[in-house]
Amino acid sequence: CWTRPVQSNKQWSGEMLQTSDSPPSSGTNIDFGACRSATVTCVSEIGWSSNSDLMQDIAAAGGPAASQWHIPWRDDNARGSCSLLEIEGLDGSRRRLLIDSGWNRDYMRARFAATGVDALLRAGDIEAVFLTHEHMDHLFGLQAVLELKPDIAIYIPSTFSEDAGRFIAGMGAPEAHAGNAVPHRGDLIPLEPGCVHTLMPGLAAVGFDLPIMLGIEGEQSLYARIEGKGLVGITGCGHHTVDRIMAFARDHLADGTRFHGLYGGLHLATFGPLTPATEAVIRDMGKYQFKRIACNHCTGLPAVKFMLDLGYPVV
After folding, report:
1. Strand pairing class (14-19; 187-191)
2. Torsion of CA 8, 9, 10, 12, to 10 degrees
3. Residues 6+ apart with CB under 8 A from 140
4. In 90-135, which ranges are continuous DSSP H helix?
5. What is the maximum span of the chain, computed from C-alpha positions, in angstroms?
6. What is the pTM of this model?
7. Which segments within the chain are labelled E, that is strand?
8. 92: left (phi > 0), else alpha (psi -120 to 50), else beta?
9. pLDDT (tens digit, 9 = 90+) per residue, 10-57?
């Protein structure tokens, strides 16, 4: 899917770049180039402080089917998921994306300062924010980014809700105790699910259209193609499953059967112990023969421990 000229989006009070909506044809292996390396820095993997407090807030609102935009979340429980991705091109150039923007603004300001992300944003050395999905712990901290770079480009799944659009435009979400006092002034780029969007040589984005708890629709992942090594899958929460992420690569991407690494939240044991079904999923991951697995956030510590027991290359 290729970028088309900027069009005004009056409903969201911002500008959006239009992309085409034609998915790759069956049997197509899309070559989106290659890079020398992909380096991911975990800015924060802690979505929230207390599982029990989070689940109480959800239960009080009516359960997992409730909309996150109408739940009065506890401010002192909010943290946030965010990573910094640096792609080194074959020519030695370096380009950076921020993956997600966390939840609690004060917490994210502190994490940006601790990791040097704040200086990179001020200097314009991070070219875009890649929002994997709409969940509060990946989106609600956006103001902490926009304070430093209000005109930064933002990639979003085209499945984002109108609530998310208004939030990005600076309208906030008072009912959800979420504020954004800095309207976004840069390009807002919606990426259609099922398409391969080449963001730069060796880095592509693919969206997956699926329902997620709290009224959210869709999640998108990144694929880095490392010259001489193969593909690295990069995900926010992985609600769409490791199998689906890797199956898309196998069916549609160059080097699609050569998997080098996997980074991010894998949504396996987020709220509790492993089940036999989850153990089976983790065992099945062995077929991909990853050389490195850097899983965090919603993967869940029991799942990581089980990977280690199986001898997986967890870093």
Report:
1. parallel
2. -140
3. 78, 80, 101, 102, 103, 104, 105, 167, 173, 176, 178
4. 105-115, 117-122
5. 54
6. 0.93
7. 3-9, 14-19, 37-44, 82-88, 94-99, 128-130, 153-157, 187-191, 197-200, 203-212, 216-226, 230-235, 259-265, 292-296
8. left
9. 334 444 444 444 566 666 789 999 999 999 999 999 999 999 999 999
